[in-house]
Amino acid sequence: MNGDQPAVVPLYMRCLWTWLLLVALVMMSTSGCRRPLKAKEAALTPEAAAEFAANRANQEVSQRLGQAPFSADKGEAMLQRDSSGKQHWQWVARVGNGTSDLSATVSFEPDGSQPSVSILTLVSEERQALPVHPDPPIFAPVQRF
C-alpha cells in the first residue's frame, strides 16, 4: 500500500463495528437501571397497606383469642427496603387487651403477597414492694453453744 492512499475497510467490517459499538452502549446505559415497580406492585397506598395489615393481624388474633382488636389507625404502614434492595411493607401496632398488650408486626410484598404475621402478648406484672420491718435488728443475736 502506498502512503498516499487511505486504507480501505470492507463494508461488512464497518457494519460489524457499528453494531458492536451500539450493543455495548445499550448494555452500559441499562446496566445500572433498577427494575421499575410494576403497576400491580405499586397499587397499594399506605392507607390500603395499613388496612390490609390490620385485617391480617385480626385474622391471626381471632384464631387464637376470638377477638379482632386491631384497626388500621393503630399503626403506620411503611414501605421499607431490605439489605438486598427489595421493598416490602411493614406495619407495627400495639393495643391493650385486659391486663396485657397485644403487639402485631405484619410484613408483605408491595403487591400484598406473601404476608408474614407475628403476634406477641406483652404482660406486665405489678410488683409488690417487700414489707419493711419496723425496727430492723442492727446485729443478729449471737448464739453460744
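the 2nd protein, sequnce then structure:
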Amino acid sequence: MAKQEEEVKKKAAERSFFWNKRRMKKKIAKIQKRNLYLDHIMWIRNAPKLNMTKFIGTMRTKVLKIEEKLIAEGRLEEKGVIFHLNIEEVDRVLLSKGIHDELSDVDLMKIVRPRKAVYERALATNTCPLLVDSRCRILKPDPPAISDEPGTLVGAAVSPGNATG
C-alpha cells in the first residue's frame, strides 16, 4: 500500500511538474514575443541615431585622410587642426586646381590659428557657462547682494512678488 501510495504521489508530482512547466513555457513565450516587439520599436527609435553615428565616423575617417594630404603638401602644420576649418573651406581648398586658382595660395594656417586660440582658451577655463545666448555670448549672473542687516533676504529673484512673514 505504501508503495502504491508513493507511486501515485510520484505520478501526481510529475503531472503537476508537467503542467507547471507547460504553463511556464507559455509565459516565457509571451514575454519573448513582447520583447521582440519592444526590440523592433526601439530599433525604429534608435536607427536614425545609429545611422548618423556611422555616417559621422566615415566622414571623420575621410577628413583625417584629407588632413594627411594637406600636411604632406605643407598647407597644415599639425594633426587635428583640420577640425578648425568648416566643410566649405576644405571643399574650396580641395577643388583648387593650381597656380592660377585664387584658392591655391590661401594660407590655411592663417584661418586656423585664431580659431585654435579661441578653442585653447575655452579648454583652459575651469567652469562651464550656465547660459549662452543666440549670439554666442556667455551670460553670467550678477554677484549676490550682501547685506549685514538681520532678516534681509539675499539671493536671486525667482518670481515676482512680496515676501511676508
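The chain has two domains: 8-73, 76-140. The first helix runs from residue 2 to 73.
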